[in-house]
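Quick question, first post here. What does this chain look like in 3D?
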Amino acid sequence: MTEHDKMLKKMCHADGFVAALDQSGGSTPKALRLYGIKNDEYEVGEKSMYDCIHKMRTRIMTSPKFNGDRILGAILFEDTMNREVEGLPTAEFLWKKKNVVPILKVDKGLEAEKDGVQLMKPIPNLDAMCDAALAHGVLATKMRSVINQADLSGIKQIVEQQFEFGKQIMAKGLVPILEPEVNIMSPEKQEIEAMLRAELMENLKLLRDDQKLMFKLSLPTVDDLYEQLVTHPNVVRVVALSGGYTRAEADALLARQHGVVASFSRALTEGLRDDMTDDAFDALLDTSIGEIFAASKASGVKK
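> Answer (accepted):
Ran it through. Tokens below.
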């Protein structure tokens, strides 16, 4: 069995959740502020900022509480993939030392809102990013767009763009994670989710049997709304983002979505601080991982 096949088997069958450690240039300052790093300790968008966030991520990844017993995979920002952890390339460290599947965030951010949605900006170097990901031993990619209103035209555009990029990624031999996030603050959230599910199902019909992908979706208002996606033969796994909910809120909602597991970012790192002792840091991370793992396991394994 190849390393790729081992990773795919873990992602499909194992208990656990996906840790989202892929804050981009835009969201990094907020993540650092919550972690207790002041704005005057780095320059936004410069190497000093990425040094700070890599130090934070390294502390999480090297913690004895962070391993493949409870974590399926970790989503990485491109800068993180290109760095090292304990002398190894990050993706190699995750898989070889932690038994955690490496995943690469490939999108370049969001366009301005139009037709109630924010499409992804173009990804002109997508093939090159996929080649680099494969060279680093990465299994999958992730890309995010956002739906704010129940506008069918906009939702169709979101889904078509996600699948278009997804097919390009699958052709490279990677597993794309499509993330059409629904804004949890939208007053039309439930209506949006029903429309989104219908569009996702229609686009899945167009895939060949050998084209495998994942979805990362907002926790739905109606429980088990995405059951048809969870059981679809082309879908490796459906994971959920925390999307602004607290960890407790997200865990409670997740536990009711059968076959769906977590892919949390802020909810995973909630409460972690730079000035914590290692023992305190590891204890809180252990609690966070334990609670998210329990909620993911409560919903049941897909296959």
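The two ends are 19 Å apart (CA to CA).
The CA atoms of residues 134 and 173 lie 8 Å apart.
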